[in-house]
Design a protein that fits this description.
By secondary structure, the protein is of the alpha+beta class. The protein is built from 4 helices and 8 strands; from the N terminus they run βαβαββαββαββ.
Length: 176
């Protein structure tokens, strides 16, 4: 799977990692436990089995002109994972600028192999992941640990593509 991801500026990154650590300290399997050395808070705009020829260059141009992009995180989302497990995420308000960027990213990916249906326009729910796959009891614990979860404003200043087969990332836009 290959992705298109937006990356947080340092203060935004620290704020999200603080929430990850709060969950971990409360006994919840948060993304603070992700062992991949390149893992960091991010917003996935798109995911597909393989990008078409020329897509990285089109994405470079698109993202160089679209960043920085300020967003507001508000509320918690729970997505179905495998079996009865759930993933907890922090919802991002879908502003006009963000929705347009998402649409244009998919236009740059026109012809991509096996687009992930969760990320295509009309199905996508912008979010930042907070946990791994949780049991219902762990999901309850996560909500208890976080309590009344505040909104947060942050800025995406960089972008990349991640290839799950190779484990490699490629900067996109002016991120390199």
């Amino acid at each position: 799977m290959q992705t298109v991801e937006l990356l947080c500026d340092p203060p935004f990154d620290r704020a999200v990692r603080t929430v990850w650590q709060r969950l971990a300290d409360g006994g919840v399997d948060s993304l603070a436990h992700n062992p991949h050395p390149g893992h960091r808070p991010h917003l996935t705009l798109a995911a597909c089995a393989r990008m078409p020829a020329g897509a990285p260059e089109r994405l470079d141009e698109l993202l160089a002109g679209a960043l920085p992009l300020t967003v507001r995180l508000t509320g918690l989302l729970s997505f179905a994972a495998r079996s009865r497990r759930r993933v907890l995420s922090w919802s991002i308000v879908p502003t006009v600028e963000l929705v347009r960027l998402h649409q244009r990213a998919w236009e740059a990916l026109d012809g991509a192999e096996e687009p992930d249906r969760h990320y295509v326009p009309g199905r996508w729910s912008p979010h930042l992941g907070l946990t791994r796959r949780l049991t219902p009891d762990d999901l309850t614990r996560a909500h208890t640990v976080l309590g009344r979860h505040p909104d947060l404003t942050g800025t995406f200043t960089a972008a990349r593509s991640f290839d799950s087969e190779t484990g490699q990332t490629r900067p996109l836009g002016d991120s390199g």
